[in-house]
Amino acid sequence: MTGFFRALLCAPFIFLCAHAHAEGPARMVPNGDIQDAGWALGRLNDGGDLARTSYSYQETTNPVRLYLIDTGVKQTNGWATWFKRNPKLSIIANVRVGAGKAKAFTHGTKMLSVIAGPETGAAQGTPIQAVLYDVYEGTTEANSDTDPGNIASAVLNARSRHLSTTPRIPGVICIASGTQTPESSYTLKSSIDAAVAAGLTVVVSAGNLNKDVAEGYIPAVYGSSAGVICAGASSTTNTKYSTSNWGYPVDLYAPGENVRTIDYDTPLSGGYDTMSGTSPSAALTTAAAIIELSKNPALTPAEVESRIVGTSYPAAADFYPPPATGQAQFPSEIATLVQVEPSPEPDSDFDGSADILEVFFASNPADQNDRPASLSLAQSAGEIAVSFEVAQDQFNPADIYNLANGSKWKVQFSPDLNLWQDAAGTLSIGTAADGRIPLSFTAPLLNQKGFLRVQVIEPPPAAE
């Protein structure tokens, strides 16, 4: 088990945060667990456990903007009451794109419930500001459809909102739509490219035709661009769901068979409906991206995609369907499943600071009002210093990086939040007072963006 505080360096300015990367102090709050969450959410925690139906999620603190481009979302009567049961979800705008009055609501309502709904949402522990776009036209739910122009307009509107938001809030665009025949759209591609360039991560669904999306189905084909994540659908047995498209440029897969959603007809606690196909897969992937951005708001869309793909779970090698006679062999690489990191270190007093950190930083893990003090950063003459206080009864000046309880600690540096290495520098030890020892770690100031963290690592359990 490890715990860590992180400091974000952006020369010539220096920002400090705890557990998340944002300007100013930020803290984690208690974690959430759902014992009966259904197979899809359970698979997000452990891609290899086919029996798991519990789901553990982190309650993060940095807000993320969700731009859901879909049908309308039902927000009257029971639906509004149901969504309000997640206090971290706020619907800040409803935008109608296209002609006519909104008629379709089922698909978008279920999508939002998979992303952030109480009981069914994968990102229900993250503060989400939802901008809901209704791009579908038609007089009934059954005959409602849309065109690439409507989606492109919604994407450009999301980009404009993102750029005009002060302070800038990280955002994810979710598009779970697709064509039934091969098609291209310069307008849609240009709008998606512009959104990514503006800092918005885009998630698209692979489509439900059981075909190779390299044939040109949109918007799935844009998954080949960095910062655009194309999600296929997996089954309960970690194989490709029967209707899901596959192949390049699908980046990964997420549960897409009978995924638990809000009960659209009767939106009450404990009552659920299901949804299948690549739409819920895109919603679950969107939730994973939202959680990642809440933990690390400084990530670019390409970095979000790299993190999501890089932490995914390898599924069965025969995930792709066999080729028909006379057709080329499908890719041999192993498909991967989206994962969401479960609750981190124990936090006995639910104050947002892990017990292992409270012991190290000399605060009381049983007292919500006693939390570790923030680290401080200062730079001068080509150097940067990280200063903090540690518990006197844990720190040994003769063996500075090994603690009395068997834990170890270190200062680490990363240029990209992925690769971490021990930071080179010198440690200065101050005079103990009130059970605390002040420490200052001084390192050369690098001419690049980077991240520092103070990491505390628990000893392995004793052998029985």
UniProtKB/TrEMBL annotation:
The active site is at 70 (charge relay system), 107 (charge relay system), 279 (charge relay system). Residues 105-312 form the Peptidase S8/S53 domain. Keywords: Hydrolase, Protease, Serine protease, Signal. It comes from the Bacteria. Transmembrane segments: none annotated. Residues 1-22 form the signal peptide. Gene3D superfamilies: Peptidase S8/S53 domain (3.40.50.200). The keyword Amino-acid biosynthesis does not apply. InterPro entries: Peptidase_S8/S53_dom, Peptidase_S8/S53_dom_sf, Peptidase_S8_subtilisin-like. The keyword Disulfide bond does not apply. PANTHER family: CEREVISIN-RELATED, PEPTIDASE S8. Belongs to the peptidase S8 family. This is S8 family serine peptidase. It comes from Luteolibacter rhizosphaerae.
